[in-house]
Design goal:
Number of strands: 12
Strand content: 25-35%
Strand order of the largest sheet: 10-1-2-11-12
Low-confidence stretches: none
Distance between the termini: 72 Å
Structural class: alpha+beta
Shape: globular
Mean pLDDT: 93
């Protein structure tokens, strides 16, 4: 016997008109939890540096002072996430799983452009309803690569990028000081200062600075690289 209702995959929009009617009558509609964030990345002479703050918010409340926003994708690539916390976490976990299977099938290290394509195709399919704004960075057989992936599926490939609510403050640091052929230490220091610009000028960003340095065959994840908001003893 066939089911009365055919099962459908993906999001359902059956209640859109109902919710609109309730909103028009003055009822407060539920909203998704967003995380104010500053995430950045830049390319230097031998690789690239990713950076993120560590504040997670639930509306006006600081939900987590020391969360991790730099997510593992593959041994040679990591991804910073801004937007809805659950969406960034689960999207990066899913793509990491797909990259592992891809690597096992091909017997090769996955390319950064492969991860970027997987991410943009997944996000485009949901028309921005998955609130994941990502900075993807990695080093593969063709060198270092840095991408931004927007929630609707569009992407950019640039030598330095920022995303999140503190992105303008961070970009002001990059625009005024980034140059080609920087050393590792210069790159790490500039990423730190860009994240701190977001922390001190954006209410949605705060706490500490996480840094991830990716070079050929090596990754350094520097958790709490800087702590500009340490409490003083009373």
């Amino acid at each position: 016997m066939a089911p009365l209702v055919e099962p459908s995959a993906g999001f359902k929009f059956d209640n859109v008109k109902r919710n609109q009617l309730l909103g028009d009558k003055g009822y407060k509609l539920p909203t998704a939890t967003k995380t104010g964030t500053t995430i950045v990345g830049l390319i230097f002479k031998d690789g690239l540096v990713l950076g993120a703050d560590t504040r997670a918010t639930a509306g006006p409340i600081v939900a987590d002072k020391n969360c991790e926003k730099i997510h593992y994708l593959a041994p040679n690539m990591y991804c910073c996430g801004a937007g809805t916390a659950a969406d960034t976490e689960f999207t990066t976990n899913m793509i990491s799983s797909q990259l592992a299977l891809h690597s096992l099938n091909t017997g090769r290290e996955p390319r950064v452009v492969t991860a970027m394509t997987m991410l943009k195709q997944h996000l485009f399919k949901y028309h921005g309803h998955i609130g994941a704004a990502l900075v993807l960075g990695g080093y593969d057989s063709t060198g270092p690569h840095l991408f931004t992936v927007y929630p609707h599926g569009s992407t950019d490939k640039l030598p330095y990028v920022t995303m999140g609510s503190g992105s303008l403050a961070a970009m002001s640091v990059f625009e005024s000081r980034w140059r080609p052929g920087m050393s590792r230490d210069e790159g790490v220091e500039m990423v730190k200062e860009a994240i701190e610009a977001g922390i001190f000028n954006d209410l949605g960003s705060g706490s500490n600075v996480d840094v991830c340095v990716i070079t050929k065959g090596n990754v350094e994840y520097l958790r709490n690289y800087a702590r500009p908001n340490e409490r003083v003893e009373k």
